[in-house]
Write a structure and sequence with these properties.
The complex is a heterodimer of chains A (428) and B (523). Chain A is mainly α and 428 residues long. Chain A is built from 17 helices and no strands. In chain B, α14 runs parallel beside α15 and α17 crosses α19. Classes of the chains: A mainly alpha (428), B alpha/beta (523).
Chain lengths: 428, 523
């Protein structure tokens, strides 16, 4: 056997530690670098193609190209300008201007005036605020994927979590924050968890497909919320909104208004770490991943499939509920119709981009949050519709889901392990 | 006879491994040329080069005397080379005709598929070579053996006269193997030439005109079946003395470890496939369950290990009844299970080796403290088992899917034997493995027996059953028709029993040797 010849890999413990995280994402260290490279190239390619869309939809640029042979320089300049203004305002809108930040820090130390500093960091804090629910919801879908479940219901679970936490938030009065806030958060987790548990139980007990049932649960959540927001949970006034939550249930904000940055972001990072620990460092995670990777093998090993499928959907739903909760308690302070605004669906994309690994999900959520929050400024500054962000997001997902395209564009050699050969046998 | 194919000095390296090292092979017209070697010897790599799937690093290919650069399967097909893959490339919801047409569609009036012409041609091919395939049948309705014949038709339809068959018998029942060999004989009689890839010695001796043996990517030699015997071939393959006969002392049976009474079990389609089975296994003995596959052995094992519920009956394990117990409950009572389908039940393929090594014990001390996995302890234990059971792998961190079949099986054996066990249930323990691995796993099973473990071996390989068992239970149509002592039974008698004929009945009904021949052919 040839395999003996391969036994040359170093067995130093240091090397193990360094690559262990990557290996958990990719399953092996041989394809580790591609695991990181392909999402990065996918984002880059998405931005490039997004730029092309910006250019061809820009009237000035198109006009310049009509007269390309008369003034080629002008046409190229117009192209460059259009893209530069669009992406310039996108990144200024999401990250702020470094020069301005440095300047405002100097002012703060010189004069003690914090107003310019707050203004300068506003864009970047807004990006983090937008990323927060994405982290929770991305984790929700990722946990589902790890258990072999496609949770399309994050949207509905998000909504139910938001409604439950809002209810606890506004209905309890005169309770100290250290009781009120945890209660509101718990209610949010519970709301999402119940909404996830139902399709989970149906899947485990009857085999009913979770994709169908989570979609159904989404519609129930939407219609239920319509009724609640127009009826029992409606605040005084014309609009279908819940009352404002009590201050004691709010996730504390770290800066004065209008900065909405709150401790929800840190909560998200902590939860991401807990999910990582749960999935990869505990027996529960071992079971969930075994059930997801090979249910027959898990049964053979004595792992209870029903228990783990339900548990995974409960965790997944709870995380999606937390996403809604963080948005209500940290940012909006009330729930209105159409509140979820596609968070649940974007989270599927985030879980895919993050390869269902908590670290990857955090990074993907930061990217999506940044793009989303910069898009508003891009719209006002460059007159480019927010929809371009959806196009870029869509492209990124296509490239992540079909890495063959990226490999083809950048001529990346496929790992031997993954190589599609018609005959299997060698080293197999 | 003219040479139709000549491979000269073929060399192919993969990162870290020289898969083919200066390999030479000639194929003459009208011969069945077996390519024999262990898993990982480089057989499949060589054929993938010939079929244009890999580019060789060195060497030359000549087809009918002409130098050929084969860069894609299309080049290969154009030169009359056809490949029948081990894993079929068929669309289950399409008919035979549609599958044969795929990628090579005949049309009439430029846009309409011309199924009539194709199905007529399929009928012609089918009649000519005795393939017996109905062009209008749907693939999903056909048994595996017939699906394979559809693959052969696909190749013949494209007018190949050099056929490569990659491990064609791995997926077939003994009867199907027999009829495949008849078809191969017809094909060569009508002028086709065949390369037959396998690691099964007996098949090679039966069917090949010449045999080329590969080992570690090199040609060991080319011989004819007349010059060698199985022992010699095994030595060529493995590169050392191999014992095809398992050495074992007489059993010293102890207490009854497993007792089964009147067991009834249904299969996944709800058919009653185990119909009132009773037997017992004692500590320190091996009970072999023989039988043609599909006579209820699979469901029997599922019921014993808790993978599927039983309908009625009694299972007593070490004196306790374990009907309706969960798989984990049964595991914890000291039952080890080497499952029939190692990739479906035995392993989580995407998990690294270390996690597969603790698949049944991950939650126990020392691998877990409360909820927290003790990854270092797991890795250490896994590394030790890899060493002890000679699993060939670069490290315990690679996914178990990257191992060869034999090494995957060793991972399962290592894992199951590393627990304190009272009963071993081994189902098809060496299916698809090469000689070296078979010898190794047989030795280990005997060792377990000698330590006082009760062993139940289920196998459709008669040789394996005869080699391992102390007593043999023969299953036929869901029932055990007899339990015999392995030392006293002949292969012919077992063959009769497997066909459902009790030798005492047979003597009355018909001359025994005639029936014996009949049955021998089945296996």
């Amino acid at each position: 056997m040839n395999d003996k010849d391969v036994t040359t890999k170093s067995k130093e413990p240091e090397e193990k530690k360094e690559t262990s995280l990557v290996k958990e994402i990719s399953g092996s260290d041989r394809s580790a670098w591609q695991t990181i490279l392909i999402p990065l190239l996918a984002v880059f390619t998405g931005l490039v193609i997004g730029a092309i869309v910006i250019v061809v939809t820009d009237a000035t640029v198109v006009a310049a190209y009509r007269n390309f042979f008369g003034a080629p320089g002008y046409a190229l300049k117009a192209t460059w300008d259009a893209v530069a203004v669009a992406y310039g305002s996108l990144f200024a809108g999401s990250l702020g201007s470094p020069a301005q930040i440095i300047e405002s820090i100097q002012i703060y130390f010189a004069t003690g005036d914090s107003a310019p500093l707050l203004k300068a960091i506003y864009p970047i804090t807004e990006s983090l605020v937008t990323s927060t629910p994405y982290i929770f919801a991305g984790l929700a879908v990722a946990v589902g994927f790890r258990a072999g479940l496609f949770n399309i219901g994050a949207e509905g679970q998000f909504f139910m979590g938001a409604l439950a936490s809002a209810f606890v938030g506004y209905s309890l009065e005169g309770v100290p924050w250290y009781i009120h806030l945890p209660l509101a958060i718990l209610a949010g987790i519970l709301g999402g968890a119940i909404w996830g548990a139902i399709p989970g139980y149906l899947k485990a007990k009857t085999g009913a497909h979770e994709v169908v049932n989570t979609i159904m649960m989404n519609w129930i959540a939407f219609r239920l919320s319509d009724w609640l927001l127009n009826g029992p949970m409606k605040a005084q006034g014309y609009r279908p909104l819940t009352p404002q939550i009590e201050a004691s249930a709010e996730l504390p904000r770290l800066f004065p208004d209008p900065l909405r940055f709150n401790i929800g972001f840190f909560l998200a990072l902590i939860i991401a770490f807990i999910v990582y620990w749960l999935l990869f460092k505990t027996t529960t995670g071992f079971e969930i991943r075994a059930v997801g990777a090979n249910p027959d093998g898990a049964t053979y090993a004595g792992i209870n499939i029903v228990r783990n499928v339900v548990l995974a959907m409960v965790i997944s739903g709870g995380l999606a509920g937390l996403a809604g909760t963080s948005q209500v308690l940290g940012v909006d302070h009330w729930v209105g119709q159409g509140f979820s605004a596609g968070f649940g669906f974007d989270s599927i994309a985030i879980a895919l981009l993050g390869k269902s690994h908590p670290l990857g999900v955090v990074l993907a959520a930061l990217l999506f949050g940044t793009l989303r929050s910069g898009a508003t400024r891009m719209q006002s500054m460059a007159g480019i519709p927010i929809d371009i962000i959806s196009i870029i997001q869509g492209l990124v997902i296509i490239f992540v889901a079909a890495p063959a395209i990226i490999r083809w564009i950048y001529r990346i050699r496929v790992d031997r392990e993954e190589q599609t050969v018609l005959t299997r046998g060698w080293g197999n | 006879m003219p040479t139709v194919l000549e491979l000269q000095g073929i060399t192919k390296a993969f990162p870290g491994v020289l898969a083919n090292d200066n390999i030479n092979l000639t194929l003459e017209q009208g011969e069945i040329h077996a390519l024999l070697g262990e898993n990982g010897a480089g057989k499949t790599t060589l054929m993938n080069i010939l079929y244009g799937l890999y580019e060789p690093d060195g060497g030359q290919i000549a087809v009918r005397g002409e130098k050929a650069d084969i860069e894609s399967p299309n080049d290969a097909i154009a030169r009359g080379i056809g490949m029948v893959h081990q894993h079929f490339m068929l669309v289950p919801v399409m008919t035979v005709t549609e599958n044969v047409m795929l990628g090579n569609e005949s049309v009439k009036n430029k846009i309409f598929l011309d199924k009539e012409t194709v199905s007529k041609r399929i009928r012609e091919i089918s009649d000519q070579y005795g393939l017996e395939v109905d062009p209008n049948a749907y693939i999903k309705d056909l048994p595996v053996g017939t699906q394979q014949r559809v693959e052969i038709i696909k190749v013949l339809y494209r007018e190949a006269d050099i056929l490569i068959l990659d491990e064609p018998t791995a997926v077939l029942t003994p009867q199907e193997v027999e009829s495949l060999f008849e078809i191969l004989q017809t094909l060569v009689d009508k002028g086709k030439s065949i390369i037959f890839i396998t690691h099964k010695l007996k098949e090679v001796m039966n069917v090949a005109d010449r045999i080329t043996v590969l080992r570690s990517g090199r040609t060991v030699g080319t011989v004819t079946p007349r010059e060698v015997d199985q022992q010699k071939l095994a030595e060529m393959m493995v590169g050392r003395q191999v014992s095809l006969i398992v050495q074992k002392d007489p059993a010293k049976p102890g207490e009854v470890a497993l007792e089964v009474k009147d067991l009834y079990v249904r299969d996944e389609q709800k058919n009653m496939t185990v119909n009132g089975v009773s037997f017992s296994v004692k500590e320190g003995e091996i009970l072999g369950v023989a039988g043609v596959q599909g006579n209820g052995q699979t469901e029997l094992v599922y019921a014993l290990t808790g993978l599927s519920p039983m309908v009625s009956g009694e299972i007593r394990l070490l004196g306790n009844t374990v009907e309706h117990a969960s798989p984990r409950n049964i595991l914890e009572r000291g039952v080890a299970h080497i499952p029939e389908d190692r990739q479906r039940h035995g392993l989580v393929l995407s998990f690294p080796i270390h996690d597969n090594m603790v698949l049944c014990t991950y939650y126990l001390d020392p691998f877990a403290k409360g909820m927290a996995l003790q990854q270092e302890k797991i890795n250490e234990a896994a590394a030790e088992l890899v060493e002890q059971y000679d699993v060939r792998t670069p490290s315990v961190y690679v996914p178990v899917s990257s191992l060869s079949g034999g090494n995957q099986q060793k991972v399962i054996v290592a894992r199951e034997f590393s627990r304190p066990i009272k009963l071993l249930v081994a189902s098809q323990p060496t299916r698809g493995l090469d000689v070296g691995s078979i010898e190794y796993i047989h030795k280990r099973i005997i060792e377990k027996r000698d330590e006082g473990t009760a062993v139940l071996v289920v196998s459709s390989e008669l040789d394996e059953i005869m080699a391992l068992s102390d007593r043999i239970a023969v299953m036929y149509k869901g029932q055990i028709i007899d339990i015999v002592s392995a030392a006293e039974v002949s292969k012919e008698e077992l063959g009769l029993l497997m066909a459902g004929i009790h030798p005492t009945d047979a003597e009355k009904a018909a001359p025994a040797d005639k029936d014996g021949d009949e049955v021998e052919r089945v296996f």
